[in-house]
Amino acid sequence: MEKLWSKTKIGKMELPHRLAMAPMTRSRAQEDGTPGEEASLYYAQRASMGLIITEGAQPSDDGQGYLWSPGIYTEKHIEGWRKVTDAVHGAGGYMYIQLMHAGRMSHPDNTPHHGQPVAPSPIAPGVEMFTVTGMQDIPVPRELSKEDIQTTIADFRRAAAAAIAAGADGVEIHGANGYLINQFIGESSNTRTDEYGGSIENRARFAIEVARAIVDEIGAERTGFRISPGTPLGGIQDGEQGPELYRYLVQELAQLDLAYLHIMHLGNEELLRDIRSLWTNPLLVNRAERALEDLSADIDSGLADLVPVGVWSLANPDLVERLQKGAPLNEADPTTFFGHGSKGYTDYPTINELASQER
What we know:
By secondary structure, this protein is α/β, with parallel strands linked by helices. 32% of the residues lie in helices and 16% in strands.
């Protein structure tokens, strides 16, 4: 793992190694979307990860999908996130706030305005959503008009500015995992006949316009983008043109000179190699179910510049130290991934705390 521990630069950040903390929904924000009281401790505990990419933060009321997810579009949100970024910077880390508009992956019971979810087309994802009254079918979303699309792009832009005002080092645009940007990309979720649907250029248009607006607002060196080619989350199917669409999208995003591209990778190795050749800036590759012994494989082969780590960093606030020392890892408790309270959030012990308990 020698290359894994080498220094690297992303945007304006000088990172101490090639690991990063992957974004993970934790559902512990306050009712108004302000980060919860323990969020500062949770993220600061993991500052040794170098670059922390936060859980998805919605850019508007329409953008909320899950209960107790954080927002980044009001003054209270900015104040709450400022406490988090200050804590992370004080502990020596960097933080990118992920901007996540859930689109149709929502329910009226979960949003501040209790409005119908929005999407590129009025097609329900065919899955359920957790609400305060339990699991419910996600309703058919309202199709975004062209005017709505421009309003949504402006929401992303304002959210990016709010993230910087909150002290974040940058933002990651969530274009993956079945959420709004991915819904425009997906063949099964986008049946529009205007310039935002149909051809691969049209289905990629919304993603590109969001990225351009954010780059114009905060700078390319502060902007990352996440994609998930071939990932069927939220009922998304890319269709036969999917790989070609992602090649086109990556080429267009590369022209914006973004700080990084982040791939949630599920196994199309040919496409991954093509993306690597098209993308000359830093590439983050997050492989599902990656074995611990393979953690540095993509760094060693040159496919990736950074390796985002999810559940291992959730359960091990001192993951970097544990890996460097060959120490055993804490087991993650899936029953505490989402919801309130410190259990399974800020109470995972470090190896130093475990050693003290044994004395």
